[in-house]
Every structure is written in C-alpha cells, then in structure tokens.
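Design a sequence for this backbone.
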C-alpha cells in the first residue's frame, strides 16, 4: 500500500494536514537529545521528511532512514540527492527486525509510522536494543483529541472528508485505512506502559495541535 501511494504521498500529506505536518516534524526535531555524537535512526522514514528536517537543524549529524516500502526509500534517496545532503543513508528494512548491532544510535525517531507496525512490543524492544544507553526514542503519531467537541469535528474530517480527498489523488483504501489505524492505536496510557515495559525511562507524552498528534518520548536506561 505504501509503495502505491508513494508518488503522491508528500503532496497529500501537506494538503490533508493544511501544512501543519511541517510543524509536527519540527517539534520532533526540537525534542532530539543534545548529544547526537552517534547517528540518528529514522524508522518508517517514508520519503525522508523527518531526516531532512533533522539535517536542516543538525547538518553534521549522521542520519539513517529505514523504511519497509522500497518505493518510499527510492523517493527518499532522490530527495536526499537533490538536496545534496551528506551522511544521510537510506535503506529498506523492517522496524521489527532492525539490521543493526546493539547500542548504535543516539536517537531513534518514528513519525506516523508506529501505528503501522504489526507488533508494538517487538518493535520497541528493537528500538531499545539499537539505542546507546541514555539514547532517546521519539514517537510522533496521530491520536484522538483530548476535547470532546474537537474530537467530533476531527472524526468527521478524518472519516468523511480526508478519505474522499485522498481517493481523488491516490489509492482510496489507503486514506480509509488512516482513520481506522488511528482508532486502533493504543491510547496514551497504554503507549506509556508499553514504552516503560520495553525499558524506557522518563517516558512522557506531549499533545500537539489540540491532541490530534502526540509526541511520545523515552530514554534508554544508562544501566
Ligand atoms: C505514514 S508513512 C510516514 C512516513 C514519514 N515518517 C513521514 O513522517 O511522513 C508510514 C511509513 O511507515 C512504513 N512502514 C510501515 N511498517 C513498517 C515497518 N514494519 N518497518 C519499517 N517501515 C514501515 C511505510 O512503508 C510508510 O512509508
């Protein structure tokens, strides 16, 4: 599905979020740890917008973008080349079975990708394994808004409007899948518990844009 929607992915992202997706990714980058002496791994990198935002703020940091969908990795690679970004590596792979040795990354980001992961605990165990002790995990994801009124409006937009606009430009089932997958995503307390169980400390969840998106962060214990 992600391979099929990749050509229109960026365009629809910016259109359907009214451009607010840039702001969400900026907030993710702002929350990166101060020490980025080891590379940053961006899982479910898609077309690479998170990695590009990281390189804009921290030009010397090594970024590795990993995604399951081959066409997404090709588009990501094209964007990296056209921007002349160095030390930005792109590869195809599975977030649940990361092709890296232990303790390799200063930070691991995953934006709008965790919801698509088949086994949350398995992925979190992998994220924990590849981070250095003291390394930070940052999960940016859609959520149910905290306000009831806004929640109703949000559900109307997500379920009735967004899939129709998506269908005009891309695979219609992909944009029906989006609200469904958000509905099935673990609520804030459950996500916090999953992250703690995987070995993360200092777990916190920040609501962005009235809670329509959350930024969950946690730090791997320093042993
Ligand atoms: C909604 S896109 C998010 C892309 C990008 N992070 C962004 O902010 O725009 C979700 C991405 O997750 C990828 N994905 C889904 N399951 C995955 C997995 N198990 N491992 C790696 N990537 C995965 C998809 O191929 C897709 O590119």
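Sequence:
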């Amino acid at each position: 599905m992600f391979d099929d929607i990749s050509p229109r992915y960026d365009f629809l992202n910016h259109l359907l979020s009214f451009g607010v997706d840039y702001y969400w990714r900026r907030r993710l980058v702002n929350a990166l740890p101060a020490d980025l002496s080891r590379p940053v791994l961006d899982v479910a990198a898609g077309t690479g917008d998170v990695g590009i935002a990281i390189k804009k703020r921290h030009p010397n940091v090594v970024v590795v973008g990993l995604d399951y969908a081959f066409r997404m990795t090709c588009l990501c690679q094209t964007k990296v080349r056209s921007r002349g970004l160095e030390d930005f590596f792109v590869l195809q792979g599975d977030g649940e079975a990361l092709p890296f040795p232990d303790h390799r990354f200063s930070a691991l980001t995953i934006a709008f990708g965790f919801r698509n992961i088949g086994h949350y605990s398995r992925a979190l165990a992998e994220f924990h394994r590849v981070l250095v002790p003291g390394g930070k995990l940052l999960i940016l994801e859609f959520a149910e808004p905290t306000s009831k009124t806004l929640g109703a409006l949000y559900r109307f937009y997500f379920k009735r409007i967004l899939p129709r606009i998506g269908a005009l430009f891309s695979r219609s089932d992909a944009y029906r899948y989006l609200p469904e997958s958000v509905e099935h995503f673990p609520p804030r307390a459950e996500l916090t518990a999953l992250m703690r169980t995987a070995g993360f400390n200092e777990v916190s969840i920040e609501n962005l844009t009235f809670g329509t998106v959350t930024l969950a962060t946690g730090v791997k214990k320093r042993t």
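The helical segments are 2-16, 20-30, 49-57, 70-82, 120-130, 148-169, 172-184, 188-197.
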